[in-house]
Amino acid sequence: MELRDFRALVDRMASEVPPQYLEGVFAIEVSPRVVPHPVYPSVYTMGECIPVEAAEDPPPSRVVLYYGSFRELARERTDFDWRGEAWETLTHELKHHLEFRARTGELDAEDWAAEQNFNRQEGKPYDPVFFLSGERVADNVYCVDDDLFFDREVAGAAPERVELDWHGHRLTADVPRGGLPLYLALEGLDPAPVGEAFVVIHRRPRILDLFRRHTGPRVEPVRVRRGE
Predict the structure, then answer these.
(1) 102, 117, 150: which is the final residue of a domain?
(2) In 3D, which of 28, 97, 34 has the Cα closest to residue 63?
(3) Domain holding 23: CATH number?
(4) Residues 181-214: b if buried by 16+ CB within 10 A, e if exposed
(5) What is the count of structural domains for the chain?
(6) Mean pLDDT of successive 10-residue segments in the chain (228 residues)?
């Protein structure tokens, strides 16, 4: 199916949705992008529900379907049902929209995580485990503004090495000696992530941590290799 035909298909489907489910939806769009899953191979993000910055409370949403992801799956599956998959994706993202409007507290947490991630990028103090308020994309893997964080909570000292799954491969990286919390900036990931990728090694947060001023954890670049 060509891009223009897919756009026409989505427009027709949107017109079939009862109006009450579209309340607060700013736009339903089709993007030509291919959006692979940040960790797993042959898995694609088909659509997203994206809150729009606005003075309204709860905020409106923009629903986007990724034509490129549909096209990639259609190439892999001879029985791919364009209409069925598009309808399932559209209704799934509209369900997220309704959930967003009902759970503004979660949006506040995600906004806070995005703010903390911006502080990290700018070299300002930030909470070392802010990413736990981001989007959970796999077991112990979180995403904040396209940056990935592999969570590794330890009871005592840091391990000598860490392991992680990346697009069907088991990877390892050596852990530099030193104190915690520690951000390992991963180098050599293939395919490369959209944003940055870190393994974050930290101890379980304690009550006293709430009263401490965060100056930012230690960040060390490490190169990954295939598991041994």
Answers:
(1) 102
(2) 28
(3) 3.30.2010.20
(4) bbbbebeebeeebeebbbbbbbbeeeeeeeeeeb
(5) 2
(6) 96 91 91 87 86 72 95 92 94 83 66 88 90 91 94 91 94 93 96 94 65 69 86
